[in-house]
Design a protein that fits this description.
The complex is a heterodimer of chains A (about 230) and B (about 230). By secondary structure, chain A is an all-alpha fold. Chain A has nine helices and no strands. In chain A, helix 3 packs antiparallel against helix 5 and helix 5 packs across helix 6. Chain A is globular. Chain A starts with a helix and ends with a helix. Chain B has one domain: Rossmann fold (3-Layer(aba) Sandwich). In chain B, strand 9 and strand 10 form a beta hairpin. The longest helix of chain B has 15 residues. The radius of gyration of chain B is 17 Å and the shape is globular. Classes of the chains: A mainly alpha (about 230), B alpha/beta (about 230). The interface between A and B is medium-sized, with 27 and 29 residues.
Chain lengths: ~230, ~230
């Protein structure tokens, strides 16, 4: 029997290898997300101040709606025979959850990085003065969305309506992440640099959501695995 | 025909002081709408190899999943490798069960070697065992071929190679010769003999008696969920 984190790392690595071959995240999900980011300015028109103001909110919304799709791409867990073997390999279900969430987090960070660069280029949003806080918000947002979408992906595994149901479940659960992330981004901007307390409070909201995601994921992993059999 | 099998003649796990290895008492399995297995009583001793034959839909694969602790029984009780079925303790013995299901457990986008390496790493088994295992089933040259690019027979061989890497105490094979050509069928016999020779037990499921090799000690018939 191998250790918890070793098992999680092995699973995450395998998920990333499968993804590298399949290319769903960067070949399918990301292009659609970038298309959405491009369409917003097209819809707004040439009103530069409005476009600039919409930049970061558009980034958060696109990240939330498209980023969650990463979790229900083709994974090793979607094949019944492979899932059975993983169960027989002695994998701790909680380590399995951690591994899948780690893989989703890694992919989401790459996805967010590309989306953010395009947002900065297309929208020219107000300059961000407090980059450490903004970066922390990005990371905590990615952690939270990875945990929530992994949990819902596990919960809806095998359901025929999964593709439609899962986003409906993730979106409301991830709303606190959207609120907090966008508020940190706003406060990290030039106009609000004098309010570090506000930033900290919203970062704590992100941390809290992440912690709830960890606890819910780990506690539900074993019952979910045995139920889904 | 597969000389490298000899290189794998090692069982890394210590066998428990459990005899019989499997004991089912009136175990039944049903879904909310359908009864798949009627109450079954079955004992499998250490060092024995049994076969279960029956037509399609008889419940053979379900019985194998019950034995693998993956499907908790709806009724009855029993133990597998000392762990009570339907209880949390089955998680502790799963590592010692080897199942080759009807469909090979291979991620299609990964190569055969990557697939085997994944399971080996998860179980904490040395990757050194992968190459000899693939060689022993005649897949050394195809080890870097993706599973999706392999024939059904090659995937089945790779799935059996996974069990060679793993060396389980309770070996469960579901239609193991289904897509194998005649030359590859000795692999199944070798696997069974190796398992029982080390004091484990093997259960082979097939729809056709002719598919069973020479290594089977006892044959049961399963029809409409009942064992005879």
């Amino acid at each position: 029997m191998t250790g918890f984190w070793l098992q999680a790392r092995v699973l995450a690595r395998n998920e990333l290898l499968v993804e590298r071959r399949a290319g769903e995240t960067f070949g399918l999900v990301l292009p659609f997300a970038l298309a959405a980011l491009i369409m917003v300015p097209l819809a707004v028109g040439i009103d530069q101040p409005t476009i600039s103001r919409l930049g970061l909110p558009a980034f958060w919304v696109v990240t939330l709606l498209f980023g969650m799709q990463i979790a229900w791409r083709q994974t090793t867990a979607t094949d019944d025979a492979v899932r059975d073997q993983i169960r027989l390999s002695g994998l701790d279900p909680a380590a399995g959850f951690a591994g899948r969430a780690m893989a989703n987090f890694t992919l989401l960070v790459g996805f967010m990085g590309v989306s953010l660069v395009l947002t900065l280029l297309l929208y020219s949003p107000p300059p961000i003065e407090n980059w450490p806080a903004f970066t922390a918000a990005l990371v905590l947002f990615a952690v939270g969305l990875s945990l929530i979408s992994t949990l819902i992906a596990d919960l809806t595994l095998g359901l025929s309506a999964r593709a439609g149901l899962a986003p409906l479940l993730v979106a409301p659960l991830a709303l606190p992440l959207l609120f907090a992330g966008s508020r940190v981004a706003e406060l990290a901007g030039e106009a609000a640099i004098s309010r570090p307390g506000g930033i900290l409070a919203w970062l704590l909201v992100l941390v809290l959501v992440d912690l709830i995601g960890v606890i819910a994921g780990v506690l539900s992993a074993r019952p979910l695995e045995e139920t889904l059999g | 025909m597969f000389p490298a099998l000899g290189l794998l003649w090692r069982v890394p796990h210590t066998l428990p002081a459990v005899e019989p290895l499997v004991s089912l008492r009136n175990v039944a399995f049903s879904t909310p709408s359908y009864s798949i297995l009627q109450p079954i009583t079955l004992t499998i001793e250490a060092g024995s190899a049994i076969a279960i034959i029956g037509p399609n839909g008889a419940g053979k694969s379900t019985l194998l999943r019950v034995l693998a602790t993956l499907a908790p029984p709806s009724e009855g009780d029993g133990e597998v490798l000392g762990a009570r079925l339907g209880n949390r303790e089955v998680l502790e013995v799963r590592r010692r069960i080897g199942l080759a299901g009807h469909l090979p457990a291979l991620a299609p986008g990964l190569t055969l070697a990557e697939n085997l390496a994944f399971y080996a790493r998860l179980a904490g088994i040395s990757a050194d065992r992968i190459e000899p295992a693939l060689e022993s089933v005649g897949l050394a040259a195809a080890r870097h071929r993706r599973a999706v690019d392999c024939s059904a027979g090659m995937r089945k061989r790779a799935d059996l190679a996974r069990l060679l890497v793993d060396s389980p105490e309770l070996l469960l094979l579901d239609e193991p010769t289904d897509t194998l050509d005649r030359n590859a069928r000795p692999i199944v016999d070798q696997l069974v003999l190796r398992t029982v020779g080390k004091g484990g037990a093997a259960v082979v499921v097939s729809h056709d008696r002719e598919n069973l090799g020479q290594s089977i000690h006892r044959i049961y018939a399963l029809e409409n969920g009942s064992l005879a």
